[in-house]
Specification:
The protein is mainly beta and about 140 residues long. It has 3 helices and 10 strands, in the order E-H-E-E-E-E-H-H-E-E-E-E-E. It is globular. The two termini are about 25 Å apart. The structure holds zinc ion.
């Protein structure tokens, strides 16, 4: 890999009331399209549990997505979240009413997540395993 010269940004985890509500355990995730393996976002997940939605205020990159939190004020202004490469639908606009936070409701199975160290673009040195389509070959060992 020849990515040493690439401009990278090391992001820092946000610490706020949303983090404490979820008992800490914030971490970065790299998110990939499950259809074509295209990287589409650097995201901060707070707390344990499955990733069901992506809050706009937890998207760090790419800029186009990260800027949504300051550009839109209602879910009707939000686009659908789609893979930038193959166009697969990944999430749809929603409001998490309990906190009045805008988010994308993620479509189950449309994405793959990897733990990230918060560096963007991701310094991926190993190939992302490309799951075969049509089969249920998720490995969770
Ligand atoms: Zn894709």
């Amino acid at each position: 890999m020849n990515m040493a010269d690439q401009n990278t940004t090391q992001h820092s985890l946000k610490k706020d009331k949303y983090v404490s509500t979820r008992g800490g355990n914030s971490h970065f995730l790299d998110l990939f399209c499950s259809k074509c393996n295209q990287y589409f976002a650097l995201y901060q997940k707070d707390g344990h549990g499955r990733l069901l939605r992506m809050y706009l205020d937890r998207i760090f990159a790419p800029q186009e997505l990260a800027l949504l939190q300051s550009k839109v004020s209602s879910k009707s202004e939000m686009p659908n979240l789609k893979c930038p490469k193959c166009g697969a639908l990944i999430g749809t606009p929603m409001v998490y009413e309990a906190e009045r936070r805008l988010a994308f409701r993620l479509i189950h199975g449309s994405f793959v997540k990897r733990k990230s160290d918060g560096v963007y673009p991701p310094q991926q040195t190993q190939n992302i395993h490309n799951p075969k389509r049509g089969g249920n070959d998720e490995k969770r060992n």
